[in-house]
């Protein structure tokens, strides 16, 4: 292993095979490791870890173990420790999948929650609400919360 210590406290290590490079940024207390396949891993002092893949994808693991994936096309996916998954689409809409089987879709026009029993509740941007039950019953409320149907 070749180790170079710089005047600012940074340390660069090159492994014997010359393929893996480790750079420690002293001021930021951050380690940057580069692998032969192009994978780069950054480890921060707060235990956040970022993986930068050769295809442009990034995976960030936060100290609370939440994992955020950033895709090259602009999509995002966050996986929380409780199993909740949030996916942000290219159009800005969000799909949230909860660990209890419920699912939410957020768009500029509405927010919709889908329940495991098939019930769907939609709240539109103007405040109008619609609930569709598995029995076929539909309840519609106006913006003030008054039942219309």
UniProtKB/TrEMBL annotation:
Q: Which Pfam families match?
A: Tcp10_C (PF07202)
- An annotated Gene Ontology molecular function: tubulin binding
Name of this protein: Centromere protein J C-terminal domain-containing protein
- Entry's family note: Belongs to the TCP10 family.
Q: Name one GO cellular component term.
A: centrosome
Query: Boundaries of each Centromere protein J C-terminal domain copy?
Result: 36-64, 73-106, 110-140
Q: Which organism is this protein's natural source?
A: Latimeria chalumnae
Could you provide one GO biological process annotation from this protein's UniProt record? Answer: cilium assembly
């Amino acid at each position: 292993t070749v180790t170079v210590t710089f005047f600012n406290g940074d340390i660069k290590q090159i492994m014997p095979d010359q393929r893996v490079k480790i750079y420690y940024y002293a001021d930021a207390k951050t380690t940057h490791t580069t692998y032969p396949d192009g994978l780069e891993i950054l480890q921060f002092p707060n235990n956040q870890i970022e993986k930068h893949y050769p295809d442009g994808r990034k995976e960030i693991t936060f100290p609370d173990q939440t994992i955020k994936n950033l895709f090259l096309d602009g999509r995002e996916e966050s996986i929380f420790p409780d199993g909740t998954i949030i996916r942000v689409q290219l159009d800005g809409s969000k799909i949230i999948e909860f660990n209890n089987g419920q699912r939410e879709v957020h768009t500029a026009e509405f927010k919709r929650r889908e329940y495991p029993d098939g019930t769907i509740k939609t709240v539109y941007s103007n405040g109008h609400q619609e609930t569709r039950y598995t029995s076929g019953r539909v309840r519609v409320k106006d913006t003030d919360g008054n039942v219309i149907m």
